[in-house]
Specification:
Elements lengths: L1 H36 L4 H11 L11 H9 L8 H4 L1 H21 L2 H12 L2 H6 L7 H20 L6 H18 L5 H13 L7 H23 L3 H10 L8 H14 L2 H15 L7 H22 L10 H51 L27 H14 L8 E4 L2 H15 L3 E3 L3 H4 L2 H8 L8 E6 L6 H4 L4 E14 L2 E14 L11
Parallel strand pairs: 1-2, 1-3
Antiparallel strand pairs: 3-5, 4-5
Helix pairs in contact: 1-5, 1-6, 2-3, 2-18, 5-6, 5-8, 5-16, 6-16, 8-9, 8-15, 9-11, 10-15, 13-15, 14-16, 15-16, 17-18
C-alpha cells in the first residue's frame, strides 16, 4: 500500500511538472512573438542608453538593466527590439518556475502550479516585466529568489546551511536593489518579521554580515551619487516628497485603479480573500511563513498607495508586493480545492488566463491596427495623448529620414557630420534607437537636466555640436516641440525642411517634422557641471 501511494504521489507530481513546463513554454513563445513585432516603448528605448553607456549608476536607476541588455544583445552587436527584451522574456520564464517552487514549499505541487498560473495571469509580471525591458524585469527574478531563500530560512531555522542561506539572502537583496532600489523593501519586510515575530534572529551574527553584503553590493549607487551631486536622491525625492504636498484625490484613485488593473483584478480579489482568511487565523500555510510573506508584500503596497494620497505615483511601483501575495493566494486556493471547491476555482483560474490573453490580444490589435490615432486629431499635435503610438511605427522613420538627410548632404544644405539634437528623454530614446544608431549619427542633448535625464551623461560620449555646425531636430507630433522656440538663441537659422506622415489602419496617425538647425552660436551640449 505504501508503495502504491508513493507511486500515485509521483504520478501526481509529474503531472503538475508537465503542466508547468507547458505553461512556461507556451507563455514564452507568445512573449517572443509580441516582443518581435511590437516596437519598443518610451521607457524601453530609454534604457538602451544604460547599455550604450554603462556606469555604476544612472540618473534614474541602478545599472543592472543596462548590463542585462548589453549581455543579451551580444555587447550591442545584435540590437533589435526582440533581443532588447530577452531579459524580460527569459526572466518571466525563470520566475514562473521559481514561484512554482516557492508554492511547492508552502503546500505541494498543485499549489506551485496555481502560483504559476496566477503569475502568468498578472499584467505586471507577465507583460509589463515579462515582455517589456524595464528595471522591474530582472528585479522580480532576484526578488523571487530572495523570497525562496527566506521561506527556506523560516521553514528550517535549525538547518546546518541556515547561515549560508542568510548570506545568500543578503547577496540577492543587493542584486535586486541594483536592478531597482525597491529591492531594499525585502530587508524592510524581513526586519519587520524579525522584530514582531522572531527576535532570536537578532542574536545571529550572520544576519548583520548579510546586511553588510547587501551594503557592499549597493555601494556603487552611493559612490556614483557622491560624485554626481546625489542627483538620483534629489530626483526621486522630488517625486515622493510630502513637503508642501496637499491631499490629491485624483492621484489616489488613479494609483489604486492602476495597481488593481496591473496586477489583474481577479488576482487582487483572490489575494485579499487569502490575506483576510490568514488574519482570521485560517492557517492554510505555516503561520510563520504567512507572516513573513505579508511583511514582505504589504509595506511596498502601503507605501506606494500612501504616497498617492499626495503625489502622482506609477502603479507598477508596488508590483513586487502584489507578486509576493500570489504565494499565499495560491496556497489559499489549493486549500479551497482540497476542501471541495475544485470546480469553481478551476473556472476562476481558467477565466483568469483567458482574461490576460484577451487583454494582450486587444492591446496588440489597438496598437497595430487602430485607424489613425485615439489622441489629438489636429496638426501640429496630431496623436498627442495617444500612448499606443509609443509602440508603433518607429521602424518606418529611419528610411524616410535617411532619404531626406542624404538629399540635404548632396545638395550641400547640411553637413554630413550633423548630429541629431534632442531636448527631452522621450522621444529622444526612440530617435536614438531607431534612427541615430542605425545611421551612425550622434545624439546631443541640449536642454534641462529634468528633461534630458541620462542624455546629459551620454553627451560625454557623444560630444557636442561645434560652433558654426549644423544639426537636425525631429519633432514628433504626439510629443510636439518647436525648435524655433527652444533653440532660437542657439542657432543662426532654423528651417522646417520636411514632414513625414505615418499611417495606421489607413489613416494618418502622426507626423514627424524634420528641422534643419544651421550655424550653432557656440559649442552646444548640456553638461552636468554647467547646470
Amino acid at each position: 500500500m505504501l508503495k502504491g501511494n508513493t507511486y500515485l504521489n509521483m504520478t501526481h507530481q509529474q503531472s503538475f511538472s508537465r503542466k508547468l513546463f507547458l505553461l512556461i513554454i507556451s507563455a514564452t513563445i507568445i512573449r517572443c512573438l509580441v516582443a518581435a513585432f511590437l516596437n519598443l516603448g518610451n521607457d524601453e528605448v530609454y534604457y538602451f542608453t544604460y547599455a550604450l553607456q554603462p556606469d555604476w549608476n544612472h540618473f534614474d536607476h541602478p545599472p543592472l538593466v543596462g548590463l542585462f541588455i548589453r549581455f543579451f544583445t551580444l555587447n550591442l552587436h545584435w540590437s533589435n527590439q526582440f533581443t532588447m527584451r530577452l531579459t524580460a522574456i527569459i526572466g518571466a520564464g525563470v520566475n514562473t518556475w521559481l514561484i512554482a517552487q516557492c508554492g511547492r514549499l508552502l503546500r505541494n505541487e498543485r499549489a506551485g502550479f496555481i502560483a504559476a498560473i496566477l503569475y502568468t495571469a498578472s499584467i505586471y509580471t507577465s507583460i509589463i516585466s515579462g515582455i517589456f525591458i524595464l528595471p522591474d524585469s530582472p528585479q522580480v527574478v532576484f526578488w523571487m529568489m530572495a523570497l525562496w531563500v527566506l521561506i527556506k530560512l523560516i521553514q528550517r531555522p535549525q538547518h546546518t546551511k541556515v547561515n549560508n542561506w542568510l548570506l545568500l539572502f543578503g547577496l540577492l537583496v543587493g542584486i535586486t536593489t541594483m536592478c531597482k532600489v525597491h529591492g531594499i523593501f525585502l530587508w524592510f519586510g524581513f526586519g519587520i518579521y524579525i522584530l514582531l515575530y522572531d527576535r532570536k534572529w537578532l542574536s545571529n551574527r550572520y544576519l548583520y554580515l548579510s546586511v553588510f553584503i547587501t551594503l557592499i553590493c549597493i555601494s556603487p549607487i552611493f559612490i556614483w551619487n557622491y560624485y554626481n551631486d546625489f542627483i538620483t536622491w534629489r530626483f526621486h525625492s522630488s517625486r515622493v516628497s510630502m513637503t508642501h504636498a496637499s491631499f490629491n484625490t485624483d492621484a489616489f484613485i488613479t494609483a489604486t485603479i492602476g495597481q488593481i488593473a496591473y496586477n489583474n483584478p481577479i488576482n487582487v480579489v483572490l489575494s485579499c480573500m487569502a490575506v483576510i482568511a490568514f488574519i482570521k487565523r485560517k492557517y492554510f500555510i505555516q503561520r510563520d511563513i504567512g507572516r513573513l510573506l505579508l511583511t514582505c508584500a504589504l509595506p511596498i503596497i502601503f507605501v506606494t498607495t500612501g504616497i498617492s494620497l499626495f503625489r502622482d505615483v506609477l502603479p507598477h511601483w508596488s508590483g513586487p508586493g502584489f507578486m509576493t501575495l500570489l504565494l499565499p493566494t495560491a496556497a489559499f486556493i489549493e486549500n479551497k480545492i482540497t476542501e471541495g471547491g475544485k470546480i469553481i476555482y478551476k473556472k476562476i483560474l481558467d477565466f483568469n488566463v483567458g482574461l490576460i490573453a484577451s487583454v494582450l490580444i486587444i492591446g496588440l490589435f489597438i496598437v497595430q491596427l487602430y485607424p489613425g490615432t485615439m489622441g489629438n486629431k489636429t496638426a501640429p499635435e496630431l496623436g498627442a495623448n495617444d500612448v499606443t503610438l509609443d509602440m508603433y511605427g518607429w521602424k518606418t522613420l529611419k528610411p524616410a529620414f535617411e532619404k531626406i538627410r542624404e538629399k540635404d548632404i548632396q545638395d550641400g544644405q547640411m553637413q554630413a557630420s550633423a548630429a541629431l539634437v534632442v531636448n527631452k528623454w522621450f522621444p529622444a530614446g526612440h530617435l536614438l534607437f531607431y534612427v541615430a544608431e542605425p545611421l551612425h549619427m550622434r545624439v546631443i542633448g541640449v536642454g534641462q537636466l529634468d528633461d534630458l535625464h541620462k542624455f546629459v551623461w551620454l553627451n560625454k560620449q557623444m560630444g557636442f555640436v561645434p560652433k558654426g555646425g549644423d544639426a537636425y531636430f525631429i519633432s514628433t507630433s504626439n510629443y510636439y516641440s518647436n525648435p524655433k522656440d527652444i533653440y532660437k538663441n542657439d542657432f543662426l537659422k532654423i528651417n522646417l525642411a520636411d514632414s513625414i506622415r505615418q499611417y495606421r489602419g489607413g489613416k494618418v496617425a502622426r507626423y514627424w517634422y524634420i528641422y534643419q538647425l544651421k550655424g550653432a552660436a557656440s559649442n552646444l551640449s548640456t553638461q552636468l557641471d554647467s547646470l
